[in-house]
Design a protein that fits this description.
Blueprint: H1 7-10, E1 13-21, E2 41-45, H2 59-66, E3 70-75, H3 95-107, E4 111-112, E5 115-116, E6 118-122, E7 132-146, E8 149-160, E9 164-168, E10 172-176, E11 183-188, H4 196-212, E12 223-230, E13 237-242, H5 248-271, E14 284-285, H6 296-303, E15 307-313, E16 323-325, E17 328-329, H7 330-338, E18 346-347, H8 358-368, E19 375-381, H9 383-402, E20 407-411, E21 417-422, E22 429-431, E23 438-439, H10 442-449, H11 456-467, H12 471-479, H13 483-492, H14 496-509, H15 521-532, H16 541-550, H17 556-562, H18 570-583, H19 585-591, H20 596-607, H21 613-627
Parallel strand pairs: 3-10, 13-20
Antiparallel strand pairs: 1-11, 1-12, 2-3, 4-7, 5-23, 6-7, 6-22, 7-8, 8-11, 9-10, 12-13, 14-15, 15-19, 16-17, 18-19, 20-21
Helix pairs in contact: 4-5, 7-9, 11-12, 12-14, 13-14, 13-15, 15-16, 18-20, 18-21, 20-21
């Protein structure tokens, strides 16, 4: 299938930023790094941007401040001490978290620094109580090799995670403190990725290195992948919140599509002779036109004393409604910008619609004195709110004339993206004065480097070679992070092929029937020990797992006893098979060995995992042959 774009011709550049939580104590206080919904206290804060050491204010911080929000923080004393309510200086950092980050650095071919210096990064969206996040570079100059070429890893950082959002309102946001301070490793690549699939390959390799340490958290929200995407003539756009590895190529492709279409709109605007200076801040009160409108939104606003304001966009007709991503238009981008003030906007390319008539549209065109190529945008709200919303629309229109604006966007579930805020500037870092620098002795670095864990792909090759199991089974064991358990059970004396089959085929096969996540590694090891001790047959594993999923407080031995799965003696097994044979004697005499399958099925149904399948098969075959 032909690709949608010639990425080389477009000059595609992609860089990755991967954040993964480490499974250690919190970074600057020795409290557990876990989530908990228990709330024992609440407090509130307002945050304000400050100038950096070079006298500049970060534009992203200023954007958040303009929203005028109050931040409410909830927490419990076990997971949030005085450090995390910003009433006490930080302790630490946690040395285990630092060691894990250095392991990751070596696995990614990076060079650890000689001294670790923590910095403060300004963040005033409320997600950090203090208004900043602590971060430190721990290694530099790594790389990942791919079929498309090598991709650099200029920095690997250790930093603290932010609060967990509970509820977001217009003027108030509620955060939970439990996630604040959980150690994060941040890995940034160079923009040397030139194909969407290459981005996925690099992300997977980095993910494999992280998982190899056995010290990263799993589950939703424990990993965040951000993409930086640009094309020739476009701009660097940061896309945040890419959760799924398989979505990376689609998100990159959709961003390329967006930038290509925005450049086409720019070119058409230039052909029409439109310049940024043509977009003037002129607000037209058109409320009177909509006094008897059929638009419920506008009618409700007017009834409350609000206004309907319009702005003129010279040369934009037909372009505001132009699709730039599937289901998203330039008008959608304008609406996204205005959302901090109003829920939505109306523009000429989508009207008449939404209860607005052609007569009303024509009346607006006449009042604004629009030409054939000119457009308008309407907002219905309290007057100052409407003006603020339309200022955002005007700014986005000016940016459209220039091409693609640099900005931060959020990934949407369908692969599209949505505006979040301006791209952060470089004026948001300053030194952390409460944490002394940490010297990394050469012998300590060598100790870590010489004892690195296996990368997942190396482990797959070893499993195939050493244990003789199927490659896809080996990959699944490792991807599901069952490899430590797999090797422990083999150490008990079980055959690798059987262990792989039980862990992957049997256990995963029960996922739709039972909550198998309630079955612990201890449960599984105990079940295998019962099998190795000759107390259960391998056919009993499924029933035991089902029982453990329902009653995780019980042991495998208790479930086996209650379900009657304890292995029968050979004599008892033969007695039950004789009963099945006698009940079906006529069929056996008529079909001979052709009855083997039926008799086996009925015998196994009666034995219900209490006898070894090979023994049952051998006894059934022998008895049928004697009768044939």
């Amino acid at each position: 299938m032909a690709e949608k774009f010639d990425y080389r011709e477009l000059g595609l550049k992609v860089g990755l930023e991967i954040h993964r939580q480490l499974d250690t104590k919190k970074l600057f206080s020795p409290v557990p790094s876990e989530l908990n919904d228990g709330v024992e206290f609440r407090f509130q804060r307002r945050l304000r941007p400050t100038m950096s050491e070079i006298g500049e204010i970060d534009p992203a911080a200023l954007e958040e401040f303009k929203k005028g929000r109050t931040y409410i923080y909830e927490g419990n004393h076990r997971l949030a001490d005085l450090v995390y309510i910003d009433e006490e200086p930080p302790r630490g950092p946690d040395m285990e978290a630092l060691e894990v980050s250095l392991q990751i650095a070596y696995l990614l071919n990076a060079k650890p620094v000689d001294e670790v210096h923590f910095m403060r990064k300004i963040v005033i969206d409320g997600s950090n109580v203090s208004g900043f996040q602590r971060t430190a570079i721990v290694a530099m100059d790594g790389r990942v090799d791919t079929p498309w070429g090598s991709v650099g890893i200029p920095t690997i950082c250790l930093e603290e995670d932010a609060c967990r959002i509970v509820e977001r309102g217009e003027k108030e946001v509620i955060y939970r403190l439990d996630r604040l301070g959980i150690p994060l490793v941040e890995i940034a690549t160079t923009p040397d990725i030139h194909h969407p699939e290459q981005a996925k390959v690099v992300a997977k390799y980095i993910g494999d290195a992280l998982r190899a340490t056995r010290k990263v958290k799993r589950g939703l929200g424990t990993i965040r992948q951000d993409l930086n995407v640009s094309i020739k003539g476009g701009a660097r756009v940061e896309i945040k919140g890419v959760q799924e590895l398989d979505m990376i190529p689609l998100i990159v492709e959709r961003e390329v599509e967006r930038q290509v279409n925005l450049l086409k709109i720019r070119d058409e605007l230039r052909e029409r002779g439109v310049k940024p200076g043509d977009i003037e801040e002129g607000f037209y009160d058109v409320t009177e036109i909509f006094q008897n409108t059929g638009s419920k939104i506008i009618a409700r606003t007017v009834k409350k004393g609000g206004k309907v304001l319009a702005v003129k966009l010279p040369g934009f007709r037909g372009l505001i409604g132009r699709e730039i991503q599937p289901g998203r238009r330039l008008g959608t981008e304008m609406a996204d910008r205005a959302k901090k003030y109003v829920k939505g906007i109306f523009h000429i390319d989508e009207l008449p619609n939404y209860g607005i008539t052609e007569l009303e549209v024509n009346a607006v065109i006449e009042k604004l004195g629009l030409g054939e190529e000119d457009a308008f945008v309407l907002v219905a709200a309290e007057e100052e709110t409407a003006r603020n919303a339309l200022r955002e629309v005007l700014q986005r229109a000016r940016e459209a004339i220039e091409g693609v604006p640099e900005e931060t966007r959020r990934a949407l579930p369908d692969g599209n993206t949505q505006y979040m805020r301006p791209l952060p500037g470089k004026a948001r870092m300053y030194p952390e004065t409460d944490i002394p620098s940490i010297f990394l002795p050469p012998e300590e670095k060598e100790r870590i480097r010489s004892a690195l864990p296996e990368l997942p792909q190396e482990k797959v090759e070893r499993y195939v070679k050493e244990y003789g199991i199927d490659r896809s089974l080996a990959e699944t064991i490792i991807n599901d992070e069952r490899d430590e358990l797999f090797e422990e059970i083999i150490g008990l004396g079980a055959k690798p092929s059987l262990v792989a089959s039980i862990l992957i085929v049997v256990l995963k096969g029960l996922k739709k029937e039972a909550p198998i996540d309630r079955i612990t590694d201890g449960h599984i090891k105990e079940a295998f020990q019962l099998y190795l001790d000759g107390k259960i047959a391998k056919e009993a594993f499924e029933e035991i797992f089902l029982g453990l999923a329902e009653h995780p407080e019980k042991t495998a031995a208790q479930i086996a006893e209650e379900k009657g799965l304890t292995l029968l003696s050979e004599e008892e097994t033969e007695r039950i098979i004789d009963e099945v044979i006698q009940a079906n004697i006529d069929v056996i005499r008529a079909k001979g060995m052709g009855a083997m399958g039926m008799i086996m099925g009925r015998a196994m149904a009666k034995l219900r995992g209490r006898a070894d399948g090979k023994l049952v098969s051998s006894l059934v075959r022998k008895k049928i042959q004697e009768l044939s």
